[in-house]
Amino acid sequence: MTNYQFPEGFLWGGATAANQLEGAYLEGGKGMNLADVMPGGKVRLNVISKPGFDFKIDKETYTYPNHDGIDFYHRYAEDIALFAEMGFKTYRMSIAWSRIFPKGDELEPNEEGLAFYDRIFDECLKHGIEPVVTISHYEMPLYLITEYGGWRNREVISFFERYAITLFNRYKNKVKYWLTFNEINGATHLPIMSLGFSPATEDVRLQESFQGLHHQFVASSLAVKACHEIIPGSQIGCMLIYMPVYAYDCNPVNVLHALKEEQVFNYICGDVQVRGEYPAFSKRYFKENDINIEMQQNDLETIKQYPVDFISLSYYMSRTEKKELTEEEKASGNLIAGVKNPFLKASDWGWEIDPTGLRIGLNQLYDRYRVPLFVVENGLGAYDTVEEDGSINDDYRIDYLREHIKAMGEAIEDGVELMGYTAWGCIDLVSMSTGEMSKRYGLIYVDKHDDGSGTVERKKKKSFYWYKNVISTNGQELE
Could you tell me the EC number(s) of this protein (predicted)? Predict the structure, then answer.
């Protein structure tokens, strides 16, 4: 197809996360959170994923770019005005939990933090931009990690419920679209990011991760219940990192292996949050991996009674799997290493680029769940060059976004109900995976560099003008 029919009211926009752009990590009464102790640079994931990570700042050894971000905390009005100039219908963002409850377990929220997000939402609404708000996005209060053990501890459910209810009551007239936990299904691979703990050994990783996930499932359902009660007409979704899993070849051994990998990674969390129950295949998986989830009497009833309204997802890559593989065959750049796919090119950071995989993934999700879908993260991390005349000619990013938007258009023609698309990150920010500024995703350039230097001046990239035209034509003009 060449003429794509995106629905009327399609939510075009961009996406960011509080911990990656706000900065001001000790201002406004904010408490410390996980992102504040994550070092910058390519060592980041190696450091935080090792057993025994101490959740402390070591400025003699590492840098901490999240402390400053891109100073969105002070420059939000300028940035939202730029989003509006692009024509954004929506802005997917997150709230820093520790700005609202600095330690996480307080009975009363921090008014200064609440007022900050009031100003953000007012600025969005002034420009006709609908906020889509992630309640928990990789920034758990540090106190809940160090004193409670993160989501392994069932007590955290009540802290999250109090936090969510506080948000719904405060912003009920400003925000109608909510997401519970960012990329919830990534937790088993890197529990520190979303579950707030570092397993002591590899042997306990799956057991502790699925126990923590169960607590999040209950918390998510309680948030759905509260959201619907407090904000009539609101919609609240889950958020998955979605990777279609391909078999390396047609060998049935590899096909079965790919199927099992896809079931566990892509569907356990979706089934619980959308269908309201653990899938049938999970029983065998839990048995074979010695996973025994402790549940309270009404947990499954709560999960069943309060499923999410829609599925939001991040899509960056597909994944190719083979039962037996050598080190040479691994796709080392991918978030979750599989086999190198010989049919795909890769980004500067080794992430395989597969627009067709997005169409496949949207079809798979909609066929399975029959609820609206929302692509809330998709983008290209790349090195950008500022030319002598000040221009940034990021045609590679335009090509990437164009092909993925075309894939969405094809999926809609396939019958998929798609709510919207928010490009990640619509303005340059600190990379989650590497803690770098040089890994740029934005349609807006920020003069900030890995060594901390820069003026934080904003510049429009070539992709800014291209995306503006895409939005104004509702996806009709993509060239």
Answer: 3.2.1.-
377 flagged as catalytic: yes
For residues 128 and 289, give the distance between their C-alpha atoms in angstroms, rounded to a whole number. 49
Phi first, then psi, for residue 164 (nearest 5°) are -65, -45
Domain parsing of the chain, residue ranges: 11-245+261-317+351-472
* Residue-level pLDDT at 283: 97
Is the whole model's pTM more than 0.85, yes or no? yes
**Residues in Cβ contact with 153 at an 8 Å cutoff, skipping those fewer than 6 apart:** 215
The alpha carbon dihedral of 128, 130, 136, 138 has a sign of negative
Structure token pair of residue 173: 């007239």
Q: Which contacts (CB < 8 Å, 24+ apart) does range 447-452 have?
A: 448/68, 448/70, 450/40, 450/41, 450/63, 450/65, 451/63, 452/63, 452/65, 452/68
Over residues 310-343, the pLDDT tens digits come to: 999 999 999 999 998 877 777 666 567 789 899 9
How far apart are the C-alpha atoms of 221 and 145, rounded to whole Å?
Answer: 22
What whole-number distance in Å separates Cα of residue 422 and Cα of residue 375?
Answer: 6
Backbone angles phi, psi at 297, to 5 degrees: -55, -40
Fold assignment, 11-245+261-317+351-472: TIM Barrel (3.20.20)
Contact 105, 153 (CB under 8 A): no
Closest C-alpha among 398, 318, 302, 306 to residue 358 = 318
Q: Mention every residue, 6+ apart, whose C-beta is less than 8 A from residue 288.
A: none
pLDDT, tens digit (0-9, with 9 covering 90-100), for 45-91 = 889 988 878 999 999 999 999 999 999 999 999 999 999 999 999 99
The dihedral through the CA atoms of 178, 131, 87, 398 has a sign that is negative
- The number of residues in the chain equals 479
Catalytic residue among 377, 403, 436, 477: 377
Spell out where 267-327 has E strands: 310-314, 319-321
CB within 8 Å of 166: residues ≥ 6 apart: 100, 101, 109, 114
Distance from C-alpha of 260 to C-alpha of 250, rounded to nearest angstrom: 15
What pLDDT was estimated at residue 202?
Answer: 87
Alpha-helical (H) ranges within 127-204 are 142-146, 155-171, 191-194
